[in-house]
Write the structure tokens for this entry.
Amino acid sequence: MTRKQARAAHDLRPIRFERAYTRTAPGSVLTHFGETRVLCTATYTDGVPPFLQGKGQAWLTAEYSMLPSATASRKSRDRNGKTDGRSIEIQRLIGRSLRGVIDLRKVTERTLWIDCDVLQADGGTRTASISGSYVALFDLLRSMDRARLLRAWPLRCQIAAVSVGVVGGEVLCDLDYDEDSQADVDLNLVMTGEGEFVEVQGSAEGRPFGRDALARMLDIGEAAVRRIFELQRAALEA
């Protein structure tokens, strides 16, 4: 199929991590995945949840939400503490992904908060959130290190994510909304800088898929994640 911007099947959309986007959060990144925009912020508060009190380590948790105007039809806000099931699933995925690459024993008893707010949605909001949150978390930890709130540097490696799918019989990387809405298979891949998987979320939306298609999606997805790692590093070195 013909893709927007004449992208090849394995090509990512234009990706950018705009750091220090807000003044108040130590880690603040406006993440661009094509037309998708996610504001990822990283902050901390003193103390940890009850199940970790007295154990001398930190905790990391994530929240995800989509602004009402992020999609073509207005999305209702979460109210009275009620979060929709999709948002709960995504914020748990973001938290699991980041906890997979940080040693929380090297951080004093504080809670690290990752907040991902989708300003504009055009597919891949969860993968953009994970990829941008790593950059925001890195900046938060750098700020905490300067304030001597770390026992040692806690990040073990990078983390990033990308969507892959089968559309019209072809494996495509980093799907936008139009492609995702037509996909026969939808897969989200979360990988560490050490080449290990944190999550492989794949499902057939239309026809079932075989092992060969899965292997092809994993190969294309892994190569794409490695390109995202390069973009993360470039942003953090800027």
About this structure: The CA atoms of residues 131 and 207 lie 29 Å apart. The chain has one domain: 8-237. Residues 211-237 form the longest helix (27 residues).
